[in-house]
Input
Amino acid sequence: MPRPERSFHTPVLVLRRRDFGESDRLLTVLTPHHGRREVIAKGARKPNSTRTGQVELYTRVDMLVNVGRDLDIAAQTVMREPYLMLREDLQRGAYAAYVSELLIRFTGEEDHQPAALFALLDATYARLCHHRDPRLVVRYYELRLLDAVGFMPELNECVVSRDPIQPRDQFFSYADGGVVSPEQLHHSRNLVPLSLDALKVLRFFQRSAYDDIQQLNISESLHRELERIMQGYLTHLLERRLQSVDFLRRVRD
Output
């Protein structure tokens, strides 16, 4: 029987950090091959610590992790991608907090496909730094994350009748996880209106690569509708409201 590894080198994305003890920080990180982990960065809060700048939020870092019984320890860290705009721009940083919290809520430490999630979040941090409209980045991320964790909404057929969706305004069921045609309203629950334009955009996001969606120009009212639909569905799935949503709205408003 192979011995469990005592340490490993890995790239990590820093999703969350909290003060721990008098001088340490407790990091929540995502790795491509070891899943999501809680790691202590010893002495990271000391003013003269060489680690302080290596464990910033929403960065990609190379890390030597010593495996502990309860918590791992960051033995060495080297900054690889600082994603500076996520700390220099408050609104972009608020979106980074939102996508990071979503990943934490939808994953566990034993997730079976961390490499795909790592690549998705790493790309999303980069896109949030540079895209003219971070809301497009976030909506695309939400759908790709839901696909990865098995909760992609059904947008092509009615979730009640299984008939193809017609090109008209529809409804969305949080409970049933997809579109409900007007004829089936009494056979579903947790319904909200879904305009044809919003349905078209969500379908386009669902089937397209990111390069195809980044040139879209979406009206403010359509942005609000897409956000309402997606955050309502995510809240239903998680059975809780995300802490980062209120902060994001305060920053944006």
